[in-house]
Structure formats: C-alpha cells, structure tokens
Task: inverse folding
C-alpha cells in the first residue's frame, strides 16, 4: 500500500496515513454515513487525524468536509469527536 508522510498537528510528531482510494471507491459498500454539525464543531482536527482512510478535511472557516466516495462508514470520526459533532446515520437507498 502507498503511504504518505503527513504532519497534521502543527509541526509536532509526523505520522503516516494511507492514501484514499487504494482499494477503490469504498463508499459504495458503506451502510452508515457520518453527518457533521459544523455549528458544534470546534475545528480541533481530531477526526481528520484519526480517519483511517484520510477522507476528512477540516478548514478553520468552513469546518469539516468528508469525501463520501471513499468514506467506509466505520464511525471512528464520530467516536473520537470530543464534542459529538459527528453522527452516524443509516444509508438509504
Ligand atoms: S466514518 Fe470512518 S472512513 Fe468515514 S470519515 Fe469517519 S473515520 Fe473516516
Ligand atoms: S473532531 Fe469534532 S470538533 Fe474536532 S474537527 Fe472533527 S467534527 Fe470538529
């Protein structure tokens, strides 16, 4: 698997993250999707750091965006969010 070295925590410890899409558009088999309440979000970057497929981006102005083509629906982001700004909801259709 390809890896990229990133440093999302403002100059602290570098970590590795998998590149998204190495196994295709994994969003096709997701059964739940994350929904973000950007009004609650404090822009702490925790979800972006912990997402195992690197599909979350946090922007200070606009908040969290998630690439649902590749999100697996694992729920890690919802679990780690300290203010519970992310909810997992069932996929419909
Ligand atoms: S549900 Fe999993 S794969 Fe999807 S954005 Fe959250 S942590 Fe990433
Ligand atoms: S973990 Fe929660 S509060 Fe932090 S950036 Fe993600 S959604 Fe926002």
Result:
């Amino acid at each position: 698997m390809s890896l990229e070295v990133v440093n999302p925590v403002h100059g602290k410890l570098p970590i590795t993250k998998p590149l998204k899409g190495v196994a295709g558009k994994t969003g096709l088999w997701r059964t739940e999707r994350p929904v973000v309440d950007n009004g609650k979000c404090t822009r702490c970057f925790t979800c972006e750091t912990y997402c195992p497929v690197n599909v979350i981006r946090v922007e200070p102005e606009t908040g969290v965006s998630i690439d649902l083509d590749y999100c697996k629906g694992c729920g890690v982001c919802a679990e780690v969010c300290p203010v519970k700004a992310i909810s997992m909801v069932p996929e419909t259709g």
